Amino acid sequence: MSVNIFPGDLRIGVIDEVLHAKPRPSAGPIEPKFQVMVLISGLQRFFIDDQQFYLDATHTPKAIIMRLSHPAQLQYDIACGAPYRKVALATPLKWLGQLSSRGNSAMTNLNSSDSKISHKIWSPNAEIVRLATQILAPPPQNSIAQTELFRMSRGLELLRRALTILPESQAEPTRDAHPISERIRLYVLENLENDLSLPQIEMDLGMNRRSIQRHFKNGTGSTLSDFIRHQRLTRARRALSEDGMSISQAAYLAGYSSPENFSVAFQHAFGLAPQRLRNGSI
């Protein structure tokens, strides 16, 4: 893996090659850190002390966000793919602490965990995969410095977006959280780009629709349809303000066939027209 070190000891590593399974090397020391890794394609399994981490991106990309609070032993077990494409970003824990002190609840929760290793493995959305791909293969620039600045900017944006999928209750679920409604909620958040019709949810979760709707309403206070609609509108709002997406594209992203209906729903949800938000994007 090729690794570049940026100001603040932000480290960005990339690898894009055919990698065959090899005998695992001996374990080595690993220092405390905060890390986000996106495995675009390939397979990886490793151990930190006795805890196993397994990412299978043979069919769809996988990602892991991790906070290691104490020195440990790292043991690589499997890393292979044709190709094996991975982007890893790491920072010192003090870097994480500086940001969490500014009020990011998700990062504060991750940073204050009593566990030696706090982590989450998930299927990254298209935006995170796109950023990882840009880091892996940046567009042509006029100089090496510009290329590295581009990688750094994309890396910081990837870190920010990774943290947006970790709302406080998702990073550290509370003990009294309703377990079935939480399972449904996390399923929805991880499948906003996919079919979220009731028949599909029934099939994927192995529950009937009445049970799904009742548990979700009891656990969250919101109907399942309202939650899905709001999450997709929030995703569309981010695409309008940050990616400069057109209103028609944002409407499709949110699941609306008509830009007019999308605009009405958007205005109702956020109190402003999507055109105003898009005009303010950079």
UniProtKB/TrEMBL annotation:
The keyword Transcription regulation applies. Keywords: DNA-binding, Transcription, Transcription regulation. The keyword Iron-sulfur does not apply. GO terms for molecular function: DNA-binding transcription factor activity; sequence-specific DNA binding. Residues 182-280 form the HTH araC/xylS-type domain. This is Regulatory protein PchR. It comes from Pacificibacter marinus. The lineage of its organism: Bacteria, Pseudomonadati, Pseudomonadota, Alphaproteobacteria, Rhodobacterales.
